[in-house]
Amino acid sequence: GTAGKKGGALMKKRRVWRWALTIAVLLTESGLVTTWLQTSPIPYSSLNSTEQGSKGIYRLLQEREVHVDRWETGWDRLPESTGHVLWVIQPEQKVYFPEVEGEWLKRWVKKGNTVVIWSGPKTPLSQELGFDAAQSADGVRKVKMAPTTEGWLKEVHSLYFPHGHQVEGSLDRVWMDEQGSPRVGKRSMGRG
Fold first, then answer.
1. Residue 133 belongs to what H/E stretch?
2. Could you say which residues of the chain have pLDDT below 70?
């Protein structure tokens, strides 16, 4: 009888240890996955220095002594003052943009602010502001830009468009490539 009780108790201890080991392994794995997800760079973020990040632009502006900051709040929290530039990169990926927010952003621009949009075709944000993109006729990605005498643009000789898009819409000004495809557009609203 005693040997049977000891054998049963030993079996229970082994089962408990197996379960404890299994739980420990699962917790360790979930901790590693959570850590990996938290350190994965967010695409198009100014904190991301990978090829999909915009940290290089952020640092370039800092080096040129342009005041830069990160906007990490809602559309209704953009600065009240004028003269600001908001860069929105690939808004179709993360930006929820209801019609009410579009009107608010238009008012913000009309007050004297600027929105720079880098996106592909048919994004709600760019369409709301009167821009769109389409595949260029030749599909070329790296293009030589038409010479200009305008500000810093005169230093830019070529641009790279990852998907070969060109800009469309009712625009006030367009910067063409050497082949005559509209690549960069500007649309004025009020004082912005």
1. strand 132-135
2. 1-13, 20, 24-41, 43, 91-100, 137
To the nearest 10°, the Cα dihedral for 128, 125, 64, 50?
A: -160
SS3 167: strand
Length reported for the chain? 192
Model pLDDT, residue 97:
61
Task: Summarize pLDDT for 114-132 with one digit per residue, the tens.
Answer: 888 877 777 777 777 777 7
Distance CA 16, CA 10 (A): 10
The rounded distance, in Å, linking the Cα atoms of 50 and 43 is 8
For residues 185 and 165, the answer to whether their CB atoms sit within 8 Å is no
Q: What are phi and psi of 89, to 5 degrees?
A: -115, 125
Range 87-112 burial, b when 16+ CB lie within 10 A, else e? bbbbbeeeeebeeebbeebbebbebe
